[in-house]
Amino acid sequence: xxxxPPASAPETxxxxxxxxxxxxxxxxxxxxxxxxxLQKAGFYPRLVADVVDDALDGRxxxxxxxxxxxxxxRAEVRRHITVLVLxxxxxxxxxxxxxxxxxxxxQIVAQISTESVPVAQIRSVVLSYMYAQPQDYxxxxxxxxxxxxxxxxxxxxxxxxxxxxxDPQCEADHGYSGTIAQEDIVLRISAEADGLQAVQDAKxxxxxxxxxxxxxxxxxxHIQSLPARPRSGVFGNRLxxxxxxx
Length: 246
What we know:
Largest sheet: 4 strands, antiparallel
Strand content: 25-35%
Low-confidence stretches: 1-29, 218-246
Helix content: 10-25%
Distance between the termini: 12 Å
Strand order of the largest sheet: 1-2-3-4
Number of strands: 9
Order of helices and strands: HHHEEEEEEEEEHH
Structural class: alpha+beta
C-alpha cells in the first residue's frame, strides 16, 4: 500500500481523450456515466477504466457502483477502489490497490483483480439500512448508511464467540455461539464518509442487480441529485473469496 495519495490532479488532455475512448460505458441507474464516476473517485481513473473495459469484453453497462475506500494506518493514508459493473448477464467486479516499493514513494505498483460472475449464479442480494433517530422517522429522512452484500459462490463466514446466559455473576461455561453469513462481497457505504448521493447510488445498484438476477424488467432510473459531502474516516470494508475484510 502506498502512503502517497493517488493522482487526482485536474484532468489533462490525455484524461479527456480517455473519457471519449470509453464513452461506450452507458449511464447506469445512477444517472452518471461509469467514466464520470471513475474520474470523480480520482484513483488512477485511466488505469481503472482500461481494466474495467477489458473485463467487460464488449458488454454494455446496465448499472455500476464505484466505491473508494480510505483508511488510516498511523501516519499513512491508504486507499483502494472497488468497481461493480452490472451487464445483462454478468456482474463484473474490479478491485484496485496500490503498493509503495520504496520509502521515497517513487516506485509504486498497482495490484488489480477482476472477477466476472454470471448473474444466474448470484444467490442473494442483501441491502442493510441504518437510520438515525428511528422514533422520529419521516419519509423524507435520508438513510445514514447502507451495506450491500452479494453472495454467489456458496462460501460462508462464521463469527464465533463465548455464549452467555445474561447473568453478569454467572461463571458457568455456556459454550460458544455464532452467526453464519453467506457473502462473497460486502460494501459498506456511509453518508458521512461518502455522501448522500453515494448511498442513493448503492440502493439503485442493488435494485438493478435484483431486477437482472430475478429476470424481471430493470427498474426505470430514479435520479435524485443530492449535495456532495466531504470524504473522511473509514467506512468501507470488502469481503470476497480473494479479498479478506480490511
